[in-house]
Amino acid sequence: MNSTNNSGVTPRLVFYEDLDTPLQACRQDSESVSCLIANINGAVTGCLLPAVMVVGLLGNSLVAYLTLCRVKPLTKQNCFYGCIAVVDGVTLVVQGVLNGFLNKGLPWLSNGRFGLVMINVSDLGCKVRERPVRLRLTVA
Fold first, then answer.
1. Nearest in space to 109 (alpha carbons), one of 55, 52, 45, 54
2. 41 to 23, 87, 116: CA distances (angstroms)
3. Measured on CA atoms in the order 94, 96, 98, 99, is the torsion positive or negative?
4. Residue 104 in domain
5. Number of structural domains found in the chain
6. What is the per-residue pLDDT across 74-130, written as a single tens digit (0 to 9) for each?
7. Does residue 14 lie in a domain region?
8. Nearest by Cα to 21 from 42, 46, 52
9. Between the CA of residue 19 and those of 38, 43, 67, 129, what are the distances in Å?
10. Residues 13, 19, 22, 28, CA torsion sign
């Protein structure tokens, strides 16, 4: 898919046409390196990533609650730690769910039947998708 953006430059977009594309390497040759990489990527994002996200969200929620609600007086340092925990939780959800689990893990778990393919065809789409990462890096 090639389209011209506002600057007149034709970007080279590389994306999967459908959710089944990474798994096609395994159907053609189950001993290939592409199949091995697709299986490792799918297993990590489909099984390990949700567990890491749950533990991370619980930990960030606990830190945010304790530093912002329970600790008195609310100092600048406690407010800073609480805000970092909140932003890290938002980053975990956006990057973990949208970019990890729905794009790579769910298609692997469902054998290519379910998932979400996010294609950034505009500058706005790219900025919206990458904003939580930049926000987290700015706060930290």
1. 45
2. 11, 26, 16
3. positive
4. yes
5. 1
6. 899 999 999 999 999 988 888 888 778 888 888 888 887 777 766 666 677 666 666
7. no
8. 42
9. 12, 15, 42, 19
10. negative
Tell me if residue 27 falls in helix, strand or coil: helix
Q: Which tens digit of pLDDT belongs to each residue from 12-62?
A: 444 454 556 667 767 777 777 877 887 888 888 889 999 999 999 999 999
Instruction: Assess if residue 47 is contained within a domain.
Output: yes
Q: Residue 89 is encoded by which pair of tokens?
A: 């939780």
**CA-based R_g, the chain, Å:** 19
- For residue 109, what are the domain limits? 21-139
C-alpha span between 53 and 73 (Å, rounded): 30
Written as one string, the DSSP assignment of 29-69 is: -TTSHHHHHHHHHHHIIIIIHHHHHHHHHHHHHHHHHIIII
Q: What is the pTM of this model?
A: 0.66
Q: Which pair of structure tokens corresponds to residue 59? A: 């930990």
Q: Is residue 15 part of a domain?
A: no
